Amino acid sequence: MTPRADIDVRPVGETEFADWNRALNTGFLREPHSSDEVLEARRKAFAACRLVGAFDSGRCVATFRSFAQELTAVGGRAVPADAVSSVTVSATHRRRGLLSRMMRQDLAAAKERGDVVATLISAEYPIYGRYGFGPATTTTEWTIDVPRSGLDARWAGPQDGGRVDFLDPEEVRKLGPELHDRLRRIRPGVVDRDELWWQQDTGVLRIHGAWQEPFYAVYRSASGEVEGMVSYKIEDHWGDAKQPQNTVRVRWLVAVTPAAERALWRYLCSIDWVVTVKSGGRAPDDLLPLFLPDARAAAITTQADWLWVRILDVVRALEARTYEAAGSLVLEVTDRGGLTGGRYRLEASEDGTGSCTPTDASAELSLEIGELASLWLGDESAVRLAAAGRVREERAGAARQADALLRTSRRPWCPDVF
Ligand SMILES: CC(=O)SCCNC(=O)CCNC(=O)[C@H](O)C(C)(C)COP(=O)(O)OP(=O)(O)OC[C@H]1O[C@@H](n2cnc3c(N)ncnc32)[C@H](O)[C@@H]1OP(=O)(O)O
């Protein structure tokens, strides 16, 4: 169907927020109208966001939201990102080019502002590649069969001098941000959590209405340092013969030391009545299964693309990260969106820094901007993409060379959904 020019795509005015919110709910197949309480919470939560709507005869029929975010690149430096969320087009107006109009406007504005990348968590795989996004992190969920794990059921707390304690929501708001900032400095793929994030997580700001308090626990090292925190809920179930068969569902678990990570998983697997632990989304190379004497007790129940990245500035993106090997490579980057395509020489030094400059030299590896995003955080392999026909070697061995430069010893991880 041809796009209709009479549908107005524009920023959402103050008085149009309720209409925009109704369209958002409708697009996500939720009850269209929100309570006054939820509406006010969302108004507050989205106050710093760029809200765009498509309006047909005065009614909002499509929604789009973006906001300033920081994404940790390989090596720990954060780059300014344009985070995209709340993307919906009403079922009555689909496939007329509304998403494309909203996305192109938003990416052009992000480029203009100087954001290095745009990010999103995609509802469905096929939607965003056409705009230059590529899957840049993978999420993996494990389901742990605790009785099969081989863990000693007599465990009574960490043996390294550290301790695990419960926290109340207000303590989480106090201790959580600093811990998370430490995680951001060491883990590529992590995005920042602002104060509103912590308010939403701990029930102060209820953008989905009903809120049930989860459990929070903290790991402190022997010297009293906060090194890890977990939030989880319990699914209560008892078998017919009066056997407790409860499940821990981890909402999030962050740790900045292996000791904290080990202690928190060990703790979750030691709670009386609990026979199953569902890990929530982790990096595919998470340490979790290796902590169990019988690693097969942790079965992978989900593995899928997670954070999608759209590189808006190849030079700044490649110079923001570090490299585990020295070397150089000429990349021919095609950007059908016209934002940052070109031929670039990437040069990585012994000290781990990289420089990227436009060049006329012959290309060694040709790829689309979305493929570069998949390689940029170190999650994907250029050799694998070449075998799949997604990148092309202009010089034999260039994909291997790209992997030597771009891959990382640990995979990136984005713990959040936004
Ligand atoms: C970051 C987030 O918020 S993720 C959440 C995304 N939202 C949803 O999934 C909610 C339900 N779906 C929707 O609201 C809509 O169908 C959207 C937003 C996915 C697409 O909006 P539309 O306005 O229909 O997309 P638009 O007409 O601009 O389509 C652009 C192109 O994408 C394709 N496309 C759009 N949606 C999909 C899809 N779900 N699967 C495959 N292709 C798709 C179209 O066919 C079109 O292809 P073309 O460029 O080859 O012609």
From TrEMBL:
- Residues binding acetyl-CoA are V87, T88, V89, R95, R96, G97, L98, L99, S100
What PROSITE patterns does the record tag this protein with? GNAT (PS51186)
Q: Which InterPro entries match?
A: Acetyltransf_17 (IPR041380), Acetyltransferase_Eis (IPR051554), Acyl_CoA_acyltransferase (IPR016181), Eis_dom (IPR025559), GNAT_dom (IPR000182), NAcTrfase_Eis (IPR022902), SCP2_sterol-bd_dom_sf (IPR036527)
Q: Which UniProt keywords apply?
A: Acyltransferase, Transferase
Superkingdom, according to UniProt? Bacteria
Is Zinc found in the keyword set? no
Domain N-acetyltransferase positions: 7-158
Which Pfam families does the annotation name? Acetyltransf_17, Acetyltransf_9, SCP2_2
Membrane listed as a keyword: no
Active site annotation, chain numbering? Y128 (proton donor), F418 (proton acceptor)
**NCBIfam families, alphabetized:** PRK01346.1-4
Task: Give the record's subunit note.
Answer: Homohexamer; trimer of dimers.
**Family the entry assigns:** Belongs to the acetyltransferase Eis family.
Q: Supply the name of the protein.
A: GNAT family N-acetyltransferase
The organism of origin for this protein: Streptomyces composti
